[in-house]
Amino acid sequence: MKIDTDLPRPVREIEHFEIPMPDGTRLAARIWLPEDADDTPVPAILEYIPYRKNDKTLERDHARAPWIAAQGYAYVRLDIRGSGESEGLMTDEYSPVELQDGCDAIAWIADQTWCDGGVGIVGISWGGFNGLQLAALQPPALKAVVTICSTDDRYADDIHYMGGALLCDHLSWASVMFGINTLPPDPVHVGDRWRDMWHQRLDESGLWLDEWLRHQTRDDFWKHGSVCEDIDAIKIPVYAVSGWADGYCRAVFRLVETLQAPAKGIVGPWSHKYPHLGEPGPAIDWLTEETRWWDHWLKGRDTGIMDEDPLRLFLQDHAEPRGHYKQRAGHWITEPAWPSPNVDRRTFGLGTDGRLGGDAHPDDRRDIASPLWVGAHAGKWCSYAKRGDQPGDQRREDAGSLVFETAPLTEDTHIAGDATVTLTFQVDRPVAQVAARLMDVAPDGAATRVSYGILNLTHRDSHETPEALVPGQTYTAEVEMKHVAQTFRAGHRIRLGLSSCYFPIIWPAPEPVTLTLFPARCALTLPVRTGDLTVADRFDPPRAAEPLEVDYHVEPHSGWSVTEDRDTGRVVVESFDHEGAAHITPHDLLHSADVRERYSTLPYDPLSAEAQVVWVHEMSRGDWSIKSVTDTTLTCDRDAFHIAARLRAWEGDTLVRDLEWTRSIPRHLV
């Protein structure tokens, strides 16, 4: 990372500023802007998220926001109502109140003396979501969007469900917000109000997992905030960004394809991170690229960015299977449109003998009843570049799957886009699921997962109105895989793996299932990249402003393990992530957070599945300190999901809250 110490314009920082909403609620902002902005107004960039401007995101913001401000922008980092030092309550993601606050904040920013009236919005994850949602509401001052690691579809392509199957990251993400909602505002900024604001959050923020699990189909709950429901409502330019290891790469392609407004997209090898912090690398000089976008749309400068191809992809080369990568080999390519004229869809039949591209008799059948340890080496649905959260060697998963593979390739084969699997099948239970994995098999046999797809087979025709399967009846369904750009080298094999479970990526079906395939009526379709593979212009190495002064009492660290009880066969997947115990020197504030996740199951009993997530947060300054512990467990029986959750909070050594929830929520074909 190149650190720029000589920025083009001097920047001043307003550490805490309260923006009034029409109902009297005040939202807390941190603002960086050129020192002379009151005399020479500049466009503003808004980042609007719940992750606490004063501690959780400050280290990241401090290296990014001043750099952009020095290019002639006011950078406003705004905490959502009920988070950080903002007043009020936050009781769900992307609520109507949140979106109206966003529109009001944009209008307020545009009206300030230091703003020239034009506003852009940027964000990663939550901030990428609500940036698209606010664009669809068309606040007059909002002129352009940068959306990173986000989606246009909250049901089909978010952290909650995949192919109609319940993602275990649904629990993981709910637990993240359960923990964040226990944190108080900083007394330095809100004074004596901090305790009342804190206690209100502890008592009234709610258990979000309870509400989310009550919506198991694509209903109005998920349609709210899904801009794909009316994509033409977005009339301003959008730059969409993601990475192959991120959970949200598919949305980039849909936005470039469907937006009527000007759109650009970029997908790197990265996990859920800003591209200048991108891991797996190569990270890029994203701040310069982002500024080119803002200069074009907010300042009217001809930066050339709209003369370039609208889609840039990192074409990954082979990598040996690992749970974590610092770097991926490959190179950048561009596409003139999406769908691309450079991509041809090529179909491979499934041979009865296991050959991909082989033959099968119409009456041939192949059965699979996967043990529930298939998925233990799948990593997370959304990688955060933590140790172990990407998929390991797939040979272990293949042992419990149906496998089809090509002969060794005679030449390099490249794909770019979404592979699909067409399956004609029968099942012996009314609820069933299938996982499809696409793999790059090296000459030594090591199998690297390239992409995968999931389908709850009761959702084969509709996510809104799923239908139970009739045992013994024949169906045909299509499984969509995540987009990817990948090279399969000559001498390697392409492998397809199919399993009837994929825990803990998805929660198991309520009964053991035998899935019967008719290979003659099944196929894998690959998006083969046949066009020009000329290496696109490389990005410069990443750069940022001077880092925040932070002293880590405990350095960030993480880990991941898979263990098996050789007596019972129970498989346990455990991970931990300590964000670090960081002393933020300018604020004299110590902030610490760590999480432990545990997923376990017996190999042939889906009702034995258990998941637990525990977060511990601590904050202190001088004699003031708080601590919170949130503990959420999810189990099930044949008919319902069961939640047991507990929240404990301390002020100093005094336990001020000990709250518990127990909920049972009927399963609806999940």
In summary, what is this structure?
Keywords: Hydrolase. Helices cover 16% and strands 38% of the residues.
Percent range for helical residues?
A: 10-25%
Task: Name the CATH homologous superfamily of the largest domain.
Answer: Alpha/Beta hydrolase fold, catalytic domain
The DSSP helix count reads 11
- CATH topology description of the largest domain: Rossmann fold
Distance between the termini: 45 Å
Q: Largest beta sheet, briefly?
A: 10 strands, mixed
| SS-based class | alpha+beta
| Oligomer description | single chain
Named CATH architecture of the largest domain: 3-Layer(aba) Sandwich
For the secondary structure, the number of strands is: 32
Q: pLDDT below 50 for ≥5 consecutive residues: which ranges?
A: none
Number of domains: 3
For the largest beta sheet, what order do the strands appear in spatially? Answer: 2-3-5-4-6-7-10-11-12-13
C-alpha geometry: globular
Q: What is the rounded Rg?
A: 25 Å
How much of the sequence lies in strands comes to: 35-45%
**Mean model confidence by pLDDT:** 97
CATH class (first level) name of the largest domain: Alpha Beta
